[in-house]
């Protein structure tokens, strides 16, 4: 009989003494704006485990906000980086080109949805990819308006922030925002009015789209619709296959480009290489980042060749875009996903989490809904299941207690009441079970001791 080994190992309180000293330095020298989930500092990370400067080992269910599908420090990626470091660091693609950039572009052109001719170029962050996809769409169509969706998140730069829906903390006090950006509803079936079916929800939004073209902006002035195939920061909201297809059809009928924002959903997270594959929709443009390069700063825009060629030489790009280190890391990540079949692993992880929490729902009344696509899993916390009133306070207490017990977790959602699970896809079954057991203990603890209300 094989004994399970525990991965979590806490030798101090969180934060420990070394982390506490670093926190003082952080407070003195770093502005308060950049948020921090766990109040400690990493020393090393491997797979789904993180050890801090005080020697405490955590299980990671956050994965750097979905940037570590391949895990912390995957060996093949580390080796590829060591090899690249001995050749050159950054000649800048705009000054002297390098092969890894071309090789990765070729790879993404092959594996992204659709068999049409595509082209790809690289940047450093998801927000930059979104900004440039919008630039390309406007250049190609000669149109001005961009439609995004309520609860959507596309980044923190000016245009990306304008397309983002959640006011606090992302937009509050930073306006005015980019003009000619508009937001449409996005299905949230769990919160639909009583009696409305999924089909009713979809139909209502489709009608609003058509009315929008009559009341706000004519279709011939709309350059693009940008959509997350699963809303990330918005709460891991999964639309129906039919809804995505109908939005794409509206775009096709009106000469509007369809941009899929796969920054968080890409690279096996949802059980397919890209989430758009679930809806069998081929986007005109796609943005990617986060898990593309095992956490290194890299992003990409891939699209139809004729669209991508709309900007002239020098009209898109950036000094650090497509760094050699990011490109070689991304090539190894894609190999790893394909070789280790991490898409199937994502499905198994998601199934295990959903099964676990569906059973837990019988005893824990504040679990409103459990939803997932692959390993992109959300637990919605409510005050009661009848009214479905979001419970942000309780959600924060669950996270804090989980952190204290060695499990790294994050929240999401417009109401701040979603526990999102983005564990690395290389997490072992034992590590997954151990992390879920911690969450169960925390929830029963809060059920028994009572929720502290401010």
UniProtKB/TrEMBL annotation:
<protein>
    <recommendedName>
        <fullName>(S)-3-amino-2-methylpropionate transaminase</fullName>
        <ecNumber>2.6.1.19</ecNumber>
        <ecNumber>2.6.1.22</ecNumber>
    </recommendedName>
</protein>
<dbReference type="GO" id="GO:0034386">
    <property type="term" value="F:4-aminobutyrate:2-oxoglutarate transaminase activity"/>
</dbReference>
<dbReference type="GO" id="GO:0030170">
    <property type="term" value="F:pyridoxal phosphate binding"/>
</dbReference>
<dbReference type="GO" id="GO:0009448">
    <property type="term" value="P:gamma-aminobutyric acid metabolic process"/>
</dbReference>
<dbReference type="InterPro" id="IPR015421">
    <property type="entry name" value="PyrdxlP-dep_Trfase_major"/>
</dbReference>
<dbReference type="InterPro" id="IPR050103">
    <property type="entry name" value="Class-III_PLP-dep_AT"/>
</dbReference>
<keyword id="KW-0663">Pyridoxal phosphate</keyword>
<dbReference type="InterPro" id="IPR015422">
    <property type="entry name" value="PyrdxlP-dep_Trfase_small"/>
</dbReference>
<dbReference type="InterPro" id="IPR004632">
    <property type="entry name" value="4NH2But_aminotransferase_bac"/>
</dbReference>
<dbReference type="InterPro" id="IPR049704">
    <property type="entry name" value="Aminotrans_3_PPA_site"/>
</dbReference>
<keyword id="KW-0032">Aminotransferase</keyword>
<dbReference type="InterPro" id="IPR015424">
    <property type="entry name" value="PyrdxlP-dep_Trfase"/>
</dbReference>
<dbReference type="GO" id="GO:0042802">
    <property type="term" value="F:identical protein binding"/>
</dbReference>
<comment type="pathway">
    <text>Amino-acid degradation; 4-aminobutanoate degradation.</text>
</comment>
<comment type="similarity">
    <text>Belongs to the class-III pyridoxal-phosphate-dependent aminotransferase family.</text>
</comment>
<dbReference type="InterPro" id="IPR005814">
    <property type="entry name" value="Aminotrans_3"/>
</dbReference>
<dbReference type="GO" id="GO:0047298">
    <property type="term" value="F:(S)-3-amino-2-methylpropionate transaminase activity"/>
</dbReference>
<dbReference type="Pfam" id="PF00202">
    <property type="entry name" value="Aminotran_3"/>
</dbReference>
<keyword id="KW-0808">Transferase</keyword>
